[in-house]
Amino acid sequence: MITIDTLIESSLWETPSGNDNEAYEALARSCVDAVWKRLDLPQQETELSLVLTDDASIRAINAQWRNKDKATNVLSFPAFDIAPGDAPGPMLGDIIIARETVEREAIEENKSFDQHLHHMIVHGLLHLLGYDHEDDEEAEEMEGLEREILHALAIPDPYTVHSTDNEND
Fold first, then answer.
1. Is the pTM here over 0.90, yes or no?
2. Cβ distance 70 to 59 under 8 Å?
3. Residue 162 among known ligand-binding residues
């Protein structure tokens, strides 16, 4: 059983229903289940921390831990270094997502916010499971997995950008 601990740090993540943690945990659970199934990982006790924050907070974290003084969509901090395909330990790690950046990217790429949020969680989770995109071969493998996992969740290919801009302008 994978325990998902959701921390909502920013009021930007509040939902109209008021069931914020439940809604985001259910979304994260669907992503975790799809990743586990695609990677054929054994069911085990492990924990995942999902932090939903804003651009200012993720910018500070990005500057502190990656020396990049800018906001980003998602950051992942694995509890343990593992290789792709290895079973995780008792803690997976942290996935931190910035609301404004994810929302802006979804608009720019003509995607729904929920579709892009699913992608960010899957992307972050794959990082926690040892996948990366530092070189072309790694990127191709990771993006292929993301496409397959999101397809299983009925989410279109995240790397097919449907710009809202008129290319003739």
1. yes
2. yes
3. no
